[in-house]
Task: inverse folding
């Protein structure tokens, strides 16, 4: 579904991604893990079009995303839940979800999406009329995921959904992501610093370090030793 080929991104003279290649097949749950500053957020921004690529290709079902305007990507079926959530604080929960449904694919089936989102996160149904800014961090993360789902994405990209959350809340969020993958067959690309949880939930993983993929494979093959090697360079 998504293929990234030899992608390079730089901020001024600083290379943030170098020759990164990865693939996400339909229905797969892929995790990209790596330490702080490895380039995980930059990878997502390049895919969703908020930072330009210096070299390489990003193909969604064979279509070269870099050939068209970035603003069109939401309409192509990519939903990006950014780091730090960024819900619309002064809009209600329901209004946030409505905002998510602006791509045509989302608008047509909004009532159905809403039912699914509320089933996944019942607290959002209870708080539908409440301002999003008054929700807890975990509830805002649920809302950010719900807003992405309202666009009816073919590919859901989640940037560190557990960031800043308590371990219990992070587990709740991971359970919901797993459920989306298993029950709805959602194709998911996740970046995470919580390596163990991310790899536990996904099908395949990539390890990103200082802008390069240093390890990849099915979760069973990403053993603790190999991960330690990749992280510590020993
Ligand atoms: P984190 O987990 O801390 O978010 P990350 O793996 O997502 O880290 P990025 O945020 O993609 O990493 O950053 C990759 C590199 O690019 C880092 O060296 C970072 O300092 C740099 N960088 C990120 N954004 C910018 C920017 N807007 N301008 C300049 N440099 C940047």
Result:
């Amino acid at each position: 579904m998504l293929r990234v080929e030899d992608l390079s991104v730089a901020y001024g003279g600083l290379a943030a991604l170098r020759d990164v290649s990865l693939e996400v097949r339909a229905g797969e749950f892929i995790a990209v893990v790596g330490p702080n500053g490895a380039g995980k957020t930059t990878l997502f921004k390049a895919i969703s079009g908020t930072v330009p690529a210096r070299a390489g290709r990003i193909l969604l079902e064979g279509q070269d995303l870099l050939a068209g305007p970035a603003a069109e990507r939401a309409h192509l079926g990519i939903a990006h839940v950014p780091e730090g959530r960024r819900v619309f604080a002064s809009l209600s929960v329901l209004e946030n979800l409505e905002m998510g449904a602006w791509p045509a694919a989302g608008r047509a089936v909004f009532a159905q999406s809403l039912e699914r989102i509320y089933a996944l996160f019942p607290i959002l149904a209870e708080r539908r009329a409440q301002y999003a800014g008054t929700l807890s961090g975990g509830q805002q993360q649920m809302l950010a995921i719900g807003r992405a789902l309202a666009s009816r994405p073919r590919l859901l990209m989640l940037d560190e959904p557990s960031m800043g959350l308590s371990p219990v809340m992070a587990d709740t969020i991971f359970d919901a992501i797993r459920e989306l993958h298993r029950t709805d067959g959602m194709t998911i690309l996740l970046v995470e610093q919580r390596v163990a949880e991310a790899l536990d939930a996904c099908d395949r993983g990539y390890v990103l370090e200082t802008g390069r993929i240093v390890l990849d494979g099915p979760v069973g093959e990403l053993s603790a030793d190999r991960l330690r090697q990749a992280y510590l360079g020993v």
In short: The pocket of adenosine-5'-triphosphate is lined by residues 11, 14, 16, 34, 36-42, 83, 193 (CB under 6 Å). Residues 34 and 220 are 18 Å apart (CA to CA). The chain is about 35% helix and 25% strand. The first strand starts at residue 2 and ends at 11.
